[in-house]
Design goal:
alpha+beta, Rossmann fold, six-stranded mixed β-sheet, three-stranded antiparallel β-sheet, 10 helices
Length: about 260
């Protein structure tokens, strides 16, 4: 295909969006058009499609940032917020199967912690919850310059219907954590993923997407967690609760 004009780019974009009932993210749309017309400059494509929802309001909507969706596509009902721990209602408690793999990924791939452990459940007996995974980044014998240890917490969900609950728990962990992550399955809708990503960026929460397959979870970082100074009162409270609940894990993390 030869170099396209602005109108031709928009017409192609309308067809692509119209064929994707679940919506298509802006970078993917640009890549799709560029793939069909390599001769067309990418900057020209950007200039032609950035305002599609404004130019064609009866055909294309923008339910969240960076996401184009056909106006005829059924809208997703708001996710109800429940106070029940989602893990309790998951068949077979399958979330626990991903605590270990994520802990290893957090340590070995993301390199955010030097020691890590799986917790989960309500073991620490607090209404603010217990992180599914908690790790500590601390100086080792080889570090010439020592530094204060950092607590990294994570909340993992296998249900795509629990992004608000998971985000709320991850925010609560910032009371005692230097960094906090929310980990959601790849079955999360693009609209929910986009909204969750924006919230995570606003509040400094890390966001990870994974494939809910025990054999190949394939964790992928979407937003890096920002570093914050936690409230030392709650840091010590968390440490004491952990020590009383499981002294072995406490020693491994904080010794």
């Amino acid at each position: 295909m030869s170099k396209m004009t602005t109108n031709q780019i928009r017409e192609l974009a309308r067809k692509i969006v119209g064929s994707r009932s679940g919506g298509i993210r802006y970078p993917e749309l640009v890549q799709d058009i560029a793939g069909q017309s390599p001769e067309t400059p990418v900057n020209t494509i950007h200039g032609a499609i950035w305002d599609l929802a404004t130019r064609f309001p009866t055909e294309i909507i923008k339910p969240s940032r960076g996401l184009f969706q056909p106006a005829s596509a059924p809208t997703t009902a708001p996710t109800p917020i429940t106070i029940v721990d989602q893990q309790e209602v998951e068949a077979g408690g399958a979330e626990i199967d991903f605590y270990g793999p994520f802990a290893e990924w957090l340590k070995n791939d993301l390199d955010e912690v030097t020691v890590v452990s799986s917790l989960g459940g309500a073991g620490l007996k607090t209404k603010w919850g217990t992180p599914d995974v908690v790790g500590v980044y601390k100086p080792t014998a080889s570090n010439l310059i020592k530094f204060p240890l950092e607590i990294v917490s994570a909340e993992i969900k296998i249900s795509p219907q629990a992004p608000v609950v998971a985000f709320g728990q991850a925010v609560a962990y910032r009371l005692f954590s230097t960094k906090s992550y929310v980990v959601m399955p790849s079955s999360l809708s693009e609209e929910d993923a986009s909204r969750l990503e924006s919230l995570c960026m606003l509040f400094g929460i890390g966001m990870v997407i994974f494939n809910p397959d025990r054999e190949k979870p394939e964790f992928t970082i979407r937003v890096r967690a920002q570093r914050y100074i936690p409230d030392m009162f709650y840091v010590n409270e968390f440490a004491e609760r952990l020590r009383q609940h499981n002294s072995e894990v406490f020693e491994r993390l904080f010794a």
